[in-house]
Amino acid sequence: MEMRTVYDPIYEKLKAPMIDFGGWRVASHITSTDQEYMMIRNSVGFAEYDFQSCFGVCGPDSFDFIQTLIVNDLGKISPGGTLYSSILDDQANLIDDVIIFWMKEDRFIIHGGIAREASRKWIAEKSEGRKVWITELSNTFLSIQGPKSINVLEKVVDVAHLEHNRFLQVDFEGVPTTIARVGFSGELGYEVHFGPEYALGMWEKFTKYCAEFGGGPFGLMAAFPIAVDKGFLFGADFYKGGSPLEYGLGWSVAFEKTFFHGRDEMLRRKEVGLRTKLVGIEADISAPAIASGLKLTYNGEVVGETTTGWVSPLLKRNIGRGWVNIKFAEPGTDLQVVGGSGPKSVKVQSTYRFFDPKSERVRADPRVMLEKA
């Protein structure tokens, strides 16, 4: 059964091309993917992601429960903070990658991706016997991304002092709203959360305010090239047999915690050595874009598979990602691509974070950006 978000009537009015994404009917684009990509990079754009899962966790055991559920250390943040992490099973297979919102005291929100059913089942199962209550939340949100995102928000509320990975609860022209300084674009960005009864009105507000800075709504497809540029993982990047260690997310794993699901298996892998690794790959700019799901070979031997790619109009590079046998993960290694209409060869790169690898743009001081406006 096709699922629709609360914003579906808007897409129909805009005559936006629609696509299926994990069973959800979502907008591919509003104008064009390339236009929306450059709009986010140069100005500001907003989109909804209501197909993502959202679970509320409350109760006296909430902190300890979430500590066992995620690989990162919840103790790194405090109420009003957010934390990126992964939820794994005991074999270190990814169930979902999530952002934890520490609302207050013993109340949290687990904001995940499209693995809603798997997450719901795992969270419910592992919460049994604990003093916690799990609720699937109906809140909606708009993600507003780009260097001018602060200019848009400042027309209504003061968030210029909001630090990266923190959030505020404010009144946005009569709408009870949570504004978090997080996002996927690699630019300054925010998520604006509110009740679904305000959704259509908030869309209208953001359409109006973004237009003043040359921005507007964008569709799901603009998120994919942005993620390739920036090195944010999704979909096939989380390949079977991998874990945060193989995915290049080891920085998010807090092995100092005495227990979390998947810890023992990842410690074992560290001890014996990783067998595979997700790497950045690049093809000649004149070749077709790197497609996903194509075999990577070395002297005729299959050594991996492409996961995603595109030709970046901003970076002027034909880039992507793929997993490879660890022996072939050395930067500079030349691999052949088998099948499809993509490039015939690619070269392994030193990183898959092609755009702003130090995240200087996403961590920029909004107050400085306002002064430059």
TrEMBL record:
InterPro entries, per database record: GcvT/YgfZ/DmdA, GcvT/YgfZ_C, GcvT_C, GCVT_N, TrmE/GcvT-like
Domain Aminomethyltransferase C-terminal: 277-348
Annotated organism of origin: Phyllobacterium zundukense
Record protein name field: Aminomethyltransferase
Domain GCVT N-terminal: start-end pairs: 11-257
Pfam families hit by this protein: GCV_T, GCV_T_C
Amino acids binding substrate: 191
Transmembrane segments annotated in the record for this chain: none
Domain of life assignment: Bacteria
